[in-house]
Amino acid sequence: MLELLSDDHARCVLDELGEAPRSASELVERLDSSRATVYRRLDSLESAGLVRSSISVQANGHHRQRYRIAVDRVRLGFDSDGITLEESARGDRGCDVVSPVHR
Question: Is the Cα torsion angle 3, 44, 15, 73 positive or negative in sign?
């Protein structure tokens, strides 16, 4: 996850999604990045659990996948056992769910 968070493109995607849920097409426009770059980062961010996607249906019947931030925070810790990375996601009942990502 550290490698992913060190990627400029991934951080730009997270910045945009931090403002509002967006489709990949909206991200391509707003970031002035290639479609392939945006989709690769979205796939990586979703696999890492930092981003979630859902289908939104428009009034005309068309649907598109929208992406949103899935975590409230990511905490990096250093101790005698090494590096710890924890993500904190908002649970269904409004409580924080903390899960260790790497040790």
Answer: negative
